[in-house]
Amino acid sequence: MTPVSTLKYGLLLITVLSNYLIFAQVNDVGVSAINLTEYGASSFTASTSVEVDVRNYGSADQTAIPITLELYDRGGSLLSTTTESVPSVTTGLTSAYTFTSTIDLSNVGTYTLKVFTGLVGDELATNDTLSKVTQKVTATEVPYFEDFESVEAITIELDSANISGLSGLSYTTEAPGSTRFRVGTLEVDSYSGSNMLGLDEGNFERNDLILTADLSAYSVSVDSVYLDFFYNDVGDENGAEDNVYVRGDVDDDWVFLFDWNTTTNHSWEHVSYLNISSVLEDAGQQFSSQTQIRWSQEDNFPMPTDGLGLDDIELFRQPDNDLGIVGEYDLPETAPNLGAEKVGVRIYNYGPNTQTSYDVVGTLVGPNGTETITETVSMSIDSGDTLLYTFNSKFDFSAVGEYTFSATTDLSTDDRSKNDDGDEMNVYNLSILTPSFPYSQNFETDTDYSYRSTKAELDGLSGWSFIPGVEGDSRVRSNSGYYTSGTKSLTLDESLYNGSYLSEAIFTLDLATKDTSKDEFFFSFDFRGFTGNVDNTDNRIFVRGSVDDDWIEIYDWFANQSTTDFVNSGDLGLTQALIDNSQAFSKTTQIKFGWRSTGYTPNAGLVIDDFEMYQ
């Protein structure tokens, strides 16, 4: 026999030979596996059986091997102990052994099982013992809904099988004391109410939120059971475990359900009607009294830098009658000169029954107050179909300002009201100025302003509006500290979380009485840029004859900027630009100042001052 290699094993040398192994020890037995699930609900009782695998690592067959099972609570107190005898284990093989004595896992909690062999003359004690942590959890009933509003603030950094006030939820972590589970008012706004659940911190170890539910009354092939929840990816890096999983029973393998780390950071997203029945059926699994859903998260910083936020978790069987508003509304676009406008909504039939008569309610909240329109719809919607319904009555968008529209369904036999309401969506009727010429604007407003959301009219600046690329991200402000006259200016800057987004300051003029063949208009302004600005086609000045026309580039401010001082644009010919592009003056003629970069003054931004327009 020719030696292949020599390996150090403990204090001995093992010589690996072709087709043969000379054992390091003659007498060596140990526990190689504890075959008890990590979680149990109905399967963990006052008389829970424990099976283990015992392996013979030595060269001699062994008989009557003493084996001890110890059960500890979370605090490390010994709850029970028993010593029995494994009949025999052949050399090099593993034997399954089930203790004749059972253990009491009837109380909800976290337990540690310690099992070890006691072979007389065992030559290697380091492989004798094996421990395993397991949890007795509670299974919630279905339908299930949790919005976290009825519980006190909670912070947990250790495995927890029983979270006070949260039926069916448990928590496990790969790094006790490093990662954490929290409920309460956290660093990001909740989706609804004031409380939410958050998973964060750690050093890329996994955080697990587990929902255990009793679905033993249902069948995956007959009953459609759905999961619905809201989540917020709080800047988490895209980890391999940043997913949602499901399994029919605690003995089953986890099955992938949803990847939550693929959407926009720092915003609430809605996962609606995830069909866990079909996922489990495809995987060959069945519902049980301890079906589980797992939300996993891994990263290395606390909120609001990293983490996963969860809110409004719901688990339910498909109801017979269920209508709801879905998707985006058909609303007028944000623009000047809005009036009485048509609005459309999308109605989805979640239930198996066809619906033929129901009410739809639309609500518009704006500068004129609240306007509510209710209409009865007699259009049929089959199961799983969507109907686009346009209200017969128009909604009033005529006043300048912000409008918030929402809609809901009202089906008299509806079995599930939580999905009746659609989301809120905003529309802005932008300010229009009917100017006298020459017109000048030095932006010396009575009050300082700073906005990260659309403004139909900037404070004290009739005709001037702001539209950010992403609501809540980029910014317009009057008090950047850079100006050519007075103490104020108009500054576009600060794209925060997700790179550079376009920000637009728009000046809208009513020039309906003007004629491009007779009235020649020019405008000019002072401006400065900063070293952090980057060149792209949005960093320009644009004009158009009306909101129905295409934008025309009239000036490249990026190419002409100074990063140390203000420069003047020179006379820019509005009339000629419109003529060259076959456009005309209108009630909504516009000039747009565009900025797209990352950062804020003094590193990046566009400052505008002393705007003038004249014939």
Count of DSSP E strands? 46
Tell me, rounded to a whole number, the average pLDDT. 92
* Secondary structure tally, helices: 3
Radius of gyration: 34 Å
Give the CA-based shape: elongated
How many strands, what sense, and barrel or not for the largest sheet? 8 strands, antiparallel
Considering DSSP H and I runs of 4 or more, what fraction of the residues is helical? under 10%
Distance between the termini: 104 Å
**Uncertain runs with pLDDT below 50, 5 residues or more?**
1-21
Structural class: mainly beta
Structural account:
This protein is mostly beta strands and 615 residues long. Strands 34, 35, 37, 38, 40, 43, 44 and 46 form an eight-stranded antiparallel sheet that branches. Strands 12, 13, 15, 16, 18, 21 and 23 form a seven-stranded antiparallel sheet that branches. The longest helix has 7 residues, at 276-282.
Q: What is the fold's blueprint, element by element?
A:
Blueprint: E1 3-9, E2 12-17, E3 20-21, E4 29-34, E5 39-40, E6 51-56, E7 62-73, E8 78-89, E9 94-98, E10 109-117, E11 129-136, E12 144-146, E13 154-156, E14 169-173, E15 179-184, E16 196-201, E17 205-213, E18 225-233, E19 243-247, E20 255-259, E21 268-275, H1 276-282, E22 291-299, E23 308-317, E24 323-330, E25 335-336, E26 340-341, E27 344-349, E28 358-366, E29 369-377, E30 386-390, E31 395-396, E32 401-410, E33 425-430, E34 439-441, E35 450-451, E36 464-467, E37 475-477, E38 490-493, E39 503-509, E40 522-528, E41 541-544, E42 552-555, H2 557-560, E43 567-568, E44 572-573, H3 574-580, E45 589-595, E46 606-614
Parallel strand pairs: 5-11, 25-33
Antiparallel strand pairs: 1-2, 2-3, 4-6, 6-9, 7-8, 7-10, 10-11, 12-23, 13-15, 14-17, 15-16, 16-23, 17-22, 18-21, 18-23, 19-20, 19-22, 24-27, 26-31, 27-30, 28-29, 28-32, 32-33, 34-46, 35-37, 36-39, 37-38, 38-46, 39-45, 40-43, 40-44, 40-46, 41-42, 41-45
